[in-house]
Amino acid sequence: MQKAIQENPKVKHTLERINGAARVGIWELDLNTNLYDTDNITCDILDLHINQKLTLNDCYILSKYKYAGEEMSLLMSNLINKGVEFDTEIEFVTQLGNIIWARKIGLADVEDGIVKRVYGIFQDVTSIKETERELQSTNSELSSIINSSAVAIVSINRDNNIKHFNSGAEKLLGYTAKEAIASLDPQSLLLPEQVYDFKLDLAKLYNKNPDKIQPFKELAKQNKSDTREWTFRKKNGDLVPVELSLTPLKNEEDKHLGILGIFYDITDRKKAESELIQKNQILNYAEQITMMGNWRWDMITADIYWSDNMYSIFGRDREKDDVVFDTYFNYIHPEDRDKVNNFITKTVNDKKFTDVLHRIVLDNGSVRTVHLLGELVLDDFGEPTHMIGTCQDVTQLRMAEIKFRGLLESAPDAMIIVDENGIIQISNKQTQKLFGYTSLELDKKPVELLIPEKFMHTYETNNNNFFTTAKYNGLEKSEEFYGVNNKGEKIPIQINLSPLETEEGLLISVAIRDITEQKQAEYKILKSKERLEVLTDNLLNKNRQLADFAHITSHNLRAPVSNLNSLLGFYNTSEDEEDKAVLFEKFEIVVGHLTETLDTLVEALKTSNGAPTELKKLKFEDALLKTTEILTGEIHETGAIIKSDFTNVPAILYSKVYLESIFLNLVSNALKYRSPDRTPEITLKSFLVRNRVTLTVEDNGLGIDLERHGHKLFGLNKVFHRHPQAKGIGLFMTKVQIESLGGIITAESTVNKGTTFILTLN
């Protein structure tokens, strides 16, 4: 084949020309061997070695897809057997694995119906295919955009008629594409005043007469596009803000065809812009109120931005004065420049902006104090690129702080200011004097360092969350605690808490007073008070004992005296000398007992100041005998029968005065409140109940209505019968005497049947 090409100059020239324009090779199939003979270009296209032979079957295998190989097999079979020529494009996989598109043309020389020769052309059309695909993709994307409802697209021809009106335009303006293309005048969508402004802008831009310029054609003439905000009128008459981009349409000959308009609804954007403007206005107003400005420093370009209020703080005019990197630093007070420079250096090195307070000197010589807050912006490599922040004029606040500090230092007590978490913010010199810590050592430390009793927790728990209450009710609270100084020594202190409402939150003013001397004085007072109370108790006890002794004395003497009066009456009425002699003997006995009683009471008064509590072993029989002898007159007069049974417990360790007084009171009461309908009977018994000596005194007298009088039975001056000698002292005194020695007295009684007193003596 190569020989044929060389011998045929026309073919050779043609192939060389084609090869110069595109990658085109030639091939020929040996019908006897079914081997391909390919030129260098074909070999290069298929990544073959020069003069490498391919079989007919190899060509099928190189096809990327099976169906393509089958198609090629059919084409080659028809070419070889029937001489049917073909021109097709197939995707191949080269020997090196590269995917290509190739155009294969098959030709045949036929003589007398027999195919004598098969050959053809092999062209690499990969780049053409890729271009076609890109064009198809671009066309598809463009079609999607044009037909998208998200963006409105309208095209207008040179006669001002709408030629295209996509779904986005339909959705936004309310017209159907059919309506718009058929009858809608594009000018009806626009507001006349905006069209006029558009004409003026273009006339000024291109130096044209505003009255003669046709703005849309002028854009085409200048081959320029225009993007700006317009207000369109919708089909229903509503107005909608849009951003419209106008682009002239021209053909290949640069002839004006019309104009393309692409627009979208910017209602939300306009609303956001309006809100942003309002927020900026509020921000500017807030900056003016708070004397605050904002700034930005581009650390790469050294560009500086100041807000309007930043200019105001430094007394500069934004319209006249530019700001550069050194502008700010030139205003820094000379004494504060090193401080600010060190702060900036530390910020860059640490890559963290905290805050700094320093002074500035304005052009008029006035000194102000400013507070810088900011943030360091880092790039993807962690290197600083920008600083942004705020600058606030805190001169007035600083002056107020100095005044506050002066008041704090002038306070006579230790003063600390803590936040809601109990962290110390400020402390005065008195605090240093009391606790031994410097202000720097206390700064940002928990208050428990000074007051380890966790008074914060105490107030929250015991005082219904004191800090919250203090915050809302303006309360103050004072408590006593123990503080600890830097040597670990405990100091008695009094704490007074007061809430301070600030812009940064609730602070607590804690006044701490050393009450060591006060505590010592209180201790002395308490000791004196205790001694005074002891003396008072002693005096009260003495008075009580004297009163008790007086009651015992008066009551115990009343019965013998009354008995003497009875005997005296019998003596005066008696005419028999023997009876008088017997009565006189009884006089002597009663007088003897009276004398003994007086001696006993006097002795008790001498030994215990009226408290007859000396205990002796006493027989119940002796106490009863003395009682009956004292009451001889009444017993004789009433004919009373007195019985006793002390066999179970014959004696007791007791006070002689108390026991005789108890017997005398109970027996005399039984005689006094006897029933007029029967002879008095009095029975006394002693026995043990749970190892305690119990004595009962039972009579058959008038009895007592316990339901009515039981609650006041043993009350002082309480009487329950109309008897001329009833004083209401005997039972009261008996109860007091028994209880003073650890005993109990109770009573059981039935009206008109009698009463039983039960005495548990020890």
Essential attributes:
762 residues; Beta-Lactamase; 5 domains; 5-stranded antiparallel beta sheet; 26 helices; 45% helix
The share of residues in extended strands comes to 25-35%
Average residue-wise pLDDT:
81
Low-confidence stretches: 455-477, 603-612
Q: What is the correct CATH architecture of the largest domain?
A: 2-Layer Sandwich
Q: How many strand units? A: 28
CATH superfamily of the largest domain: Histidine kinase-like ATPase, C-terminal domain
* Whole-number count of domains: 5
Helix content: 40-55%
Strand line-up across the major sheet: 3-2-1-6-5-4
Domain PAC: 86-137, 226-278, 354-406, 477-527
GO molecular function: protein histidine kinase activity
Protein name: histidine kinase
Enzyme class: transferase
Explain this structure.
The chain has 762 residues and is of the alpha+beta class. The protein folds into five domains: 2-132, 2-Layer Sandwich (Beta-Lactamase); 148-265, Beta-Lactamase (2-Layer Sandwich), CATH 3.30.450; 272-397, PAS domain (Beta-Lactamase); 411-514, PAS domain (Beta-Lactamase, 2-Layer Sandwich), CATH 3.30.450; 540-760, Heat Shock Protein 90, CATH 3.30.565.10. It contains 26 helices and 28 strands. Strands 3-2-1-6-5-4 form a six-stranded antiparallel sheet, sandwiched between helices. A five-stranded antiparallel sheet has the order 8-7-11-10-9. A hairpin with a 5-residue loop joins strand 19 and strand 20. Helix 20 (516-573) packs across helix 23 (632-638) and helix 22 (620-630) crosses helix 24. The longest helix is centred in the C-terminal third of the chain and has 58 residues, at 516-573. The termini are far apart.
